[in-house]
Amino acid sequence: NYTTVYIPVSDTAEYEGLVSAVTYAELEHETRDLSAGPLTDLEMLTGASADLAIVLYTSGSTGVPKGVRLSHRTVLNRLRWQWRVFPYGPEESICVFKTALTFVDSVSEIWGPLLCGRTILVIPRDVTKDPERLVALLEQHRVGRLVLVPSLLRAILLYLGLKSNTRLLSHLKVWVCSGETLQAELAREFFQQFPDGSHVLCNFYGSTEVMGDVTYHVMASSQDITQDGKVPIG
């Protein structure tokens, strides 16, 4: 029973990859038909934990999109770890969803907050690429955590440095880097911007096949970068 499976498709995906993914999945209905019709009894049945939940297409090292099958058990295992190690605080009423649906980080960005009763703030792609607008939005909604690639972290820190306002993003306590190598120099810049010890910078590592993250390292100060000058992955 695969009625509870979703296959995210990005509107920015290359045409060849998009056609390959949709054809392989043998989708039989258009979106408007699915949305207009009522759920059947079969679709409302509760699936088992081993049932398929998501299919994410990733090219990996081959350059050819391949479907990675993630079960409900796999997704929940990742989310429960997140809730245990990085629990939402009472002041975290709004969380950010900005990662493309086709990337595995989007799964925890969406379902992590929603299953804990939080509200999701969907940030448009053009805002994500503009540090000034992104910081303003994070400030406006007092977002408490953010998942981002190191290159975006660098852009945000550069903007904060130009503003010379130490209070900007002071409420954003948990910063999670993933998707690229986190350089020690960038981690040190982070703690120069947030030196009070109330902010943590995390380095996550994993792959789509294992629901994104299997190892991690948490830094509360520049001393946690380690003596050899490299940021650990766990």
From TrEMBL:
Cross-referenced Gene3D superfamilies: N-terminal domain of ligase-like
In this chain the AMP-dependent synthetase/ligase domain maps to 46-221
One Pfam family cited in the UniProt record for this chain: AMP-binding
| UniProt keyword terms in alphabetical order | Phosphopantetheine, Phosphoprotein
InterPro entries linked: AMP-binding_CS, AMP-dep_synth/lig_dom, ANL_N_sf
Superkingdom of this protein's organism:
Eukaryota
Q: What is this protein called?
A: AMP-dependent synthetase/ligase domain-containing protein
Originating species: Timema douglasi (Walking stick)
